[in-house]
Amino acid sequence: MLDDLKRMVIFTHVVDTGSFSGAAKRLGVAKSAISKHISLLEQSTGIRLLNRNTRSLSLTDIGEGYYQSCIKLVEVVEEAQGRISSAQEEPRGNLKISSPSSFGIDHVSPLLHQFLQQYPLLNAELLLDDNMIDMTEAGIDVAIRIGWLPDSNLRAKKIKDSPRLLCASPEYLKGKKIPTSPADLTQLEWIIFTLLPTPYQYELLKKNQAKAQNKTIHIKGRIKTNNASAVRRLMLEGAGIAALSDFLIEDDLNKGNLVQLLPDYKLSDVGIYAVYQNQHLQQAKIRTFINYVVDKL
After folding, report:
1. 34 contact partners, CB below 8 Å, separation of at least 6
2. Which of 140, 185, 260, 276 could form a disulfide with 135 if both were Cys (CB 3.0 to 4.6 A apart)?
3. Class for domain 94-157+271-296, per CATH?
4. Is the domain defined by 164-268 classed in CATH 3.40.50.10800?
5. In CATH, what is the architecture of 2-86?
6. Is-same-fold flag (94-157+271-296; 164-268)?
7. Average pLDDT of each block of 10 consecutive residues along the chain (297 residues)?
8. Residue 35, SS3 per DSSP
């Protein structure tokens, strides 16, 4: 049992690094030892986990599912080890964090100040960028990401789900027919948020209805931007309608600066995640910060 667990951990490192040699370098062992452990793991499971050739490795279909299961198991082990280490090791050194601009300013910055007050041996740098930064190249320890995560060898811990709301300003809606169905939305001017997976297409579901009742609409707009704060500002200026996460527009709705459209319909929520590199969770500064953010938000 313990041998299998050890080999499952090695297997995740092979997949994360993309090679036996990469896993061997990360773990500080011989490449031949890595190859032997993977062969024994395949013998133990009775399935072929990896496609091998002289240039690359890739997961088999069954191997992909097995890898996802191994990740969950390894995370449980790492978390248990982390709880022990946290009691023995105080976070120290430099912590580099990236976040989308609006969320970083309004939510991460206040938490970061509170976090550093608890850990005087720690310094932090917060990078604000709405584009997806290469964490390895930029030396990022933790990236706060909002939306739908692409497949990668990075790990992610969900902080929370954020509902998206359709809105417009009273000024924009003045003299216009208030939409009562998804089809009505196609007649309005949209502010296009280009960071969405499908910026010109939305799927709406009437609340408390089956998935079969989903309505897909195709939209148009003369202004597009890759910044959520710019979308909000344009809405407030009366440039059109848009859908944004609730944390961006909650105050505007409460003050009447924006009006929610089609409240009986909903869009899919977006996830807010703390993303980190697989081997880095063992570092006290990263593990402690992620747990702090998840707890506070």
Report:
1. 10, 14, 20, 23, 24, 27
2. 140
3. alpha beta
4. no
5. Orthogonal Bundle (1.10)
6. yes
7. 82 87 86 90 90 82 89 76 62 94 92 94 93 86 87 81 96 94 96 94 84 84 94 97 95 97 92 83 84 91
8. helix
